[in-house]
Amino acid sequence: MSEVSSSESDSLLRVKGIGKQFPGVRALHDVGLYLKRGEVLAVLGENGAGKSTLMKILAGVQAPDSGDILIDGKPVTIGSVQDAMELGIALIHQELNLATNLSIGANIFLGREPRKFGLIDEAKIAAESRRFLDLVGLKIDPREIVGNLTIGRQQMVEIAKALSIDARVLIMDEPTSSLSSKETESLFEVIKDLRKRGVSIIYISHRLGEVRELADRVTVLRDGENAGDLERAEISHDRMVSLMVGRDLSQFYPHEPHTPGEVALEVKELRSPVHPRHPVSFSIRAGEIVGVAGLVGAGRTEMIETIFGVRTPVGGEVRVAGNPVSITSPRDAIRAGLALAPEDRKQQGLVLEMAVRENLSLASLSRDQRHGFLNLGKETEISEEMIRKMRIKTPSDRQVVRYLSGGNQQKVVLGKWLAMKPKVLLLDEPTRGIDVGAKQEIYALMEELARSGVAILFVSSEMEEVLGMSDRALVMHEGRLTGELSRDELSEEAVMHLATGGSNAAAA
Amino acid sequence: MKRILGILVLFILVYVATAIMASNQGAEFLSGFTQENLLRRVAPIGILGIGVAFVIITGGIDLSLGSMVCLIGVGVAWLLTDVGWSIPVTLVVAFAVSAAIGLFHGALITKLNLPPFVVTLCGLLMYRGITRGFTQDQTAGFGTGFTGLRQLSKGEIPVPFVEGFQLPVPFVLMLVVGVIAAIFLNKTVAGRHLMALGNNEEAARLSGVRTKALTILAYVICSVLAGLGGLLHILDVGLEQPATAGNFFELFAIAAAVLGGCSLRGGTGTIAGVIIGTALIQLLRQMITIVFPRQQSMEYLMIGAVLLIGVIADELVRRAVAKRRASRNA
């Protein structure tokens, strides 16, 4: 399988005219790309641009509605993950798919265990596994249990597994999102080595610095369509961003300077149970938008969850509008005037099987109750107001939230909190996984709220969003607040410096 | 209404079929007496089903119901006759014990994060064991006494302008419990919060819902209603053996709740559905007695088969609806 001469066809994999429709969303429209033998192709795009859908189609997880996939110039149908594997395509998911209770070897050969007299041939598994582990530079015993490995090493096991099925095309979806910088370096070594051996890699990442270092070519998607390609010599930060966003950044982010009012939220020496050794202190004024930047795992979500009482703080003080408050549950936080739109919309933000109106009113039911009974008139009022104000696209307020698009679901989450008229709005990745149009609406809404005097603290992993929307930015690294940058000091370099553990030279 | 339509249709079909088969065999079914008996038997399981519906809506389960019926039912008879306590004291103790057991279940499940299945399975074993212990495995019963109290199960309320049929008191009690439960679930903030937490506990908690307190409340409601069901059961049958009283009641009640549209994944369920589900199960049992008197050993097979058919039909309908919705949205 793997012995294909490069003269047979220049591109190993070619994709043409792919279309894919989901209920209410056109995920992909006439998308194409090609991949040569032994190259690293970076596929870029904002959240919701269609990268993941395209990769799932290539890996056989989803079927396209239209379009052709050619391997070595021959059209193929990829109907299942099994088909993709036989064609030599392996997808390494952002969340790793390993059985953490089994050994490395058992994971590599899961589902195709070599047998001897009907029993699993452990000796062969160990020997074979060792060969593939060598390829990814892992010098560990294949009998080790996967759960005992660091995330970085688990990822190497995934790659070894892909190589063991003779993968010629390796798709990596945000492989560095949970790696330390050291682990990232060794991953890059492995990728470069694989490229030399003729393996082709599709690399998906939001980190443009990584793309500059690794990619031979870049293909950019925007709103489910091809936005443009860049050859090696053309790859630069600005060109990648302008292709991804499709317009000038200053137009995309509606940011205007705000005149901050009184201090709305003050956090003093707050210690989260996850990072108890790193007390965090900062304050936000009414009408201010403060971004929180940092790498995945920097403790940003944990910090705002601790402020909101999702996690119980192990020390420190929180003041809302000058008054000290004791917050040990979300209920306390809501009473104090805080609101949190969590990171995982479906798991934490919404009751998916309930109607739009029931979700919109969920946080205000207790406030609006009449002797314990529901105030349905008030509920109608809230849901009509929020559907109008947030421009939530839904056939009616009785529509089950599951059937709305990601952007509209996020608007329902925000609408639920706006109905409470919070003093402080905490947003965790407010635009993750929603399309560009809805994103802009959410930015506009953040602006409007800030103008009306709400203090907004938002966590974002999208550098452009932090740079575009913040009056001020906090940067975290491994649980510590490593610095604070004013609007004037904000730059990708300054944020990355602090996010990777550098000290804050600019902060006062 | 849409959600209970399926079970309602199924009930009517079985009812009509039973009536036809009974009349073909010359057996008594449509008589006032048989109908009264049917309604009377719906009551205890129906009340249990309403209780367990609350727990199922939170995504939990209560397997201890049958043993609760045994504990409270046999316990009440034992306290009144063998120990000689007064009726008011006995009833207060019975309901206090029921509520305490619910609190115990709820606390273990929410505070220690134990799985509801395991906690209530242990309850199933323990409460029957306790009952067999304090009665020394002797039958407890009322004999000819306590006719006043037994009116709660034996009594009948005349229906105006209807001859030969009277409404059994326990059935009316069940309807009252059902109406209160339905109002609680659909019209109160706590009921809405319960539905929300059954669907997505994390999202409900982040929206300020007191998820633990409400889950505990659901188990307390369930156990108290199990106590009421046990009381009505013993008052109806008059005497019971600790080793067998209430056997399988938990399974009938859970089956009724599932037939009535409660998803074991939590978050859905209607009280009307549970009551019709119970009626269907008791109707099936009666049908077997009347129509197939020589195949009574097949009772469980019949009930199991109908439950399975109901659940399969429900799933198929759900898929068809989801498919239609998806194609409409595309």
Describe this structure in words.
The complex is a heterodimer of chains A (508) and B (330). By secondary structure, chain A is an alpha/beta fold. Chain A folds into 3 domains: 237 residues, 3-Layer(aba) Sandwich (Rossmann fold); 165 residues, Rossmann fold (3-Layer(aba) Sandwich), CATH 3.40.50; 71 residues, no CATH class. In chain A, 33% of the residues lie in helices and 25% in strands. Chain A has 19 helices and 22 strands. Chain A has a 6-stranded mixed beta sheet, with helices on both faces. Chain A is globular and about 70 Å long. The N terminus of chain A is likely disordered. Chain B is mainly alpha-helical and 330 residues long. Helix content of chain B is 75%, strand content 3%. Chain B has a two-stranded antiparallel ribbon. Chain B has a two-stranded antiparallel sheet with strand order 2-3. In chain B, strand 2 and strand 3 form a beta hairpin. Chain B starts with a helix and ends with a helix. The mean pLDDT of chain B is 91.
> What summary fits the major beta sheet of chain A?
6 strands, mixed
**What do we call the CATH topology of the largest domain in chain A?**
Rossmann fold
Taken as a percent bin, the fraction of beta residues of chain A is 15-25%
| Oligomeric state of shown chains | heterodimer
Structural class of chain A: alpha/beta
Distance between the termini of chain A: 61 Å
How many H/I helical runs of chain A? 19
First-last Cα distance of chain B: 28 Å
Parts with pLDDT < 50 across at least 5 consecutive residues of chain B: none
Residues in helices of chain B, as a percent range? over 70%
Portion of residues within helices of chain A: 25-40%
Q: What's the number of structural domains of chain A? A: 3
How many strands in all of chain B? 4
Question: Measured on Cα atoms, how large is the radius of gyration of chain B?
Answer: 20 Å
CATH architecture of the largest domain in chain A: 3-Layer(aba) Sandwich
Chain pair sharing the greatest interface: A-B, 32 and 25 residues
CATH topology heading of chain B: ABC transporter involved in vitamin B12 uptake, BtuC
Structural class of chain B: mainly alpha
Biggest sheet layout of chain B = 2 strands, antiparallel
Number of helices of chain B: 13
